[in-house]
């Protein structure tokens, strides 16, 4: 405990790190505050009462989307759409980058190209919001706060009129843009990846309530609840291993020293050994976020299908249930595809081979240039496939846990998108904090916390 307190003091003593943390916490507080502000015309007290009565029966991807937005989705908040439209836009832009020459050119233009791609992503986010906002309002009237022509107690105005739909659509779009802006500001001036941190905070907001529900539903005197917590800790450790596992590729750098008076010094050849760390899960949490964003589409379409007993409606309902085998099967395929796709676009093996050759680095037994690129690509393919399968297992683990009787609100934290995002974001944030601490001659968060003696 003493070491932990000392580490907090060390963090607070670094002015730049302190300012970044304060800015990050400020935006997180604003984000959480915004998730409780309802749309105009919504009675927040009545919505709270309805949610309390319906929370135990809530199922499907709508519940997961609600956790991604920190409860904003069900509360009819101004931030109800959250950051998911931006994630969807990012997926579309990256996929188009494989086929559209203009985007391919921008990807090769460095910082200026990235800025233009970011601007395109922002405009596409607005376009997606303009589609999702009316769909959300329709879903609000049909499922979350049912409205059948007469005034529902949760509505202060008629939700079917232009004066409710139009301003609500503008507010929802603005809320997503504001959330996107906060995420970018956290990334630029705060600590960690802002978009991922906002998602993580929304997920963690439901964790205490999930623990309380699981404890209240336990009829074994706390034994089952204790076993569930132990199993959750084991799953967390597996996720940490998945995020941090690397395949080290040995590299040898050769340098010549010709200075000095002796013939020995003039002809000396020195070699330095190092390695390239290729992550087993090089794509991080992005494949599961991308796959989840696509899996939200059936839940959105459910509110647009008028015939409740139609085959299309029944199929969409099955796919929208994260505990069904149909959802798990489609989800698994999407994760594997996005894992290979995102790894391919984020790890340029050809550029890595060129950099090694230019800096005098070689992989023992492999010729520089194309052979090195092929060798790295082969290794990457071999470790990405089992990594993607492990990612799939963790992603569908909530459905498996639910089959064993774990309450569905707590089962969502047994892997899946929620746990992987939390683990990845927390480890990434800790790594950035450690960088500041080590640069200022302090032990990192994962160490004892004692200040090092520096001369």
From TrEMBL:
This protein's UniProt keywords: Cell membrane, Membrane, Protein transport, Translocation, Transmembrane, Transmembrane helix, Transport
Gene (name only): secY
Similarity annotation: Belongs to the SecY/SEC61-alpha family.
Subunit structure: Component of the Sec protein translocase complex. Heterotrimer consisting of SecY, SecE and SecG subunits. The heterotrimers can form oligomers, although 1 heterotrimer is thought to be able to translocate proteins. Interacts with the ribosome. Interacts with SecDF, and other proteins may be involved. Interacts with SecA.
Protein name as catalogued: Protein translocase subunit SecY
Bilayer topology term: Multi-pass membrane protein
The keyword Secreted is annotated on this UniProt entry: no
Membrane-traversing stretches: 21-39, 78-103, 123-142, 162-183, 190-211, 223-246, 284-305, 325-349, 383-405, 411-430
Record organism: Moheibacter lacus
Primary location group: membrane
SUPFAM superfamilies: Preprotein translocase SecY subunit (SSF103491)
Example of a GO cellular component annotation carried by this entry: plasma membrane
Any matching Pfam family: SecY
InterPro entries given in the database record: SecY, SecY/SEC61-alpha, SecY_CS, SecY_dom_sf
Cross-referenced PANTHER family: SECY/SEC61-ALPHA FAMILY MEMBER (PTHR10906)
Described function: The central subunit of the protein translocation channel SecYEG. Consists of two halves formed by TMs 1-5 and 6-10. These two domains form a lateral gate at the front which open onto the bilayer between TMs 2 and 7, and are clamped together by SecE at the back. The channel is closed by both a pore ring composed of hydrophobic SecY resides and a short helix (helix 2A) on the extracellular side of the membrane which forms a plug. The plug probably moves laterally to allow the channel to open. The ring and the pore may move independently.
An annotated GO BP: protein transport by the Sec complex
The organism's taxonomic lineage, starting at the top: Bacteria, Pseudomonadati, Bacteroidota, Flavobacteriia, Flavobacteriales
Record localization: Cell membrane; Membrane
């Amino acid at each position: 405990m003493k070491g932990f307190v000392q580490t907090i003091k060390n963090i607070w003593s670094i002015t730049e790190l302190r300012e970044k943390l304060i800015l990050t916490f400020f935006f997180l507080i604003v984000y959480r505050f915004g998730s409780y502000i309802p749309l105009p015309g919504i009675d927040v007290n009545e919505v709270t009462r309805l949610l309390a009565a319906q929370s135990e029966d809530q199922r499907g991807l709508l519940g997961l989307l609600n956790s991604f937005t920190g409860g904003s989705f069900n509360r009819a908040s101004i931030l109800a759409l959250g950051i998911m439209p931006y994630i969807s836009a990012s997926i579309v832009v990256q996929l188009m980058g494989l086929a559209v020459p203009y985007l391919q050119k921008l990807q090769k233009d460095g910082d200026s190209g990235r800025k233009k791609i970011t601007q395109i992503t922002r405009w596409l986010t607005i376009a997606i919001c303009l589609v999702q906002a009316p769909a959300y309002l329709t879903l609000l009237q049909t499922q979350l706060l049912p409205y059948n022509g007469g005034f529902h107690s949760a509505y202060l105005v008629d939700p079917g009129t232009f004066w409710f739909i139009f301003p609500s659509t503008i507010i929802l779009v603005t809320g997503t843009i504001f959330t996107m802006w906060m995420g970018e500001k956290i990334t630029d001036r705060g600590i960690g990846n802002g978009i991922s941190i906002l998602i993580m905070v929304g997920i963690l907001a439901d964790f205490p309530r999930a623990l309380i529900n699981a404890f209240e539903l336990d009829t074994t005197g706390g034994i089952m609840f204790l076993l569930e917590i132990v199993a959750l800790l084991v799953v967390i450790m597996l996720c940490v291993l998945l995020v941090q596992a690397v395949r080290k590729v040995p590299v040898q750098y050769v340098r010549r020293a010709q200075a000095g008076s002796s013939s020995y010094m003039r002809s000396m050849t020195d070699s330095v050994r190092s390695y390239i760390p290729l992550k087993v899960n090089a794509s991080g949490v992005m494949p599961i976020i991308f796959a989840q964003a696509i899996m939200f589409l059936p839940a959105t379409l459910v509110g647009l299908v008028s015939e409740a007993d139609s085959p299309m409606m029944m199929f969409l309902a099955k796919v929208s249930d994260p505990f069904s085998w149909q959802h798990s099967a489609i989800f698994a395929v999407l994760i594997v595809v996005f894992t290979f796709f995102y790894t391919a676009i984020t790890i340029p093996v050809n550029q890595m081979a060129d950099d090694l050759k230019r800096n005098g680095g070689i992989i023992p037994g492999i010729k520089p240039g194309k052979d090195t690129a092929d060798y790295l690509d082969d290794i990457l393919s071999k470790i990405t496939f089992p990594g993607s399968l492990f990612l799939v297992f963790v992603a569908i683990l909530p459905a498996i846990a639910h089959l064993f009787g774990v309450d569905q609100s707590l089962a969502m934290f047994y892997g899946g998108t929620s746990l992987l995002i939390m683990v990845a974001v927390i480890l990434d944030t800790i790594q950035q904090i450690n960088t500041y601490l080590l640069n200022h001659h302090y032990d990192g968060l994962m160490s004892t916390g004692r200040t090092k003696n520096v001369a």
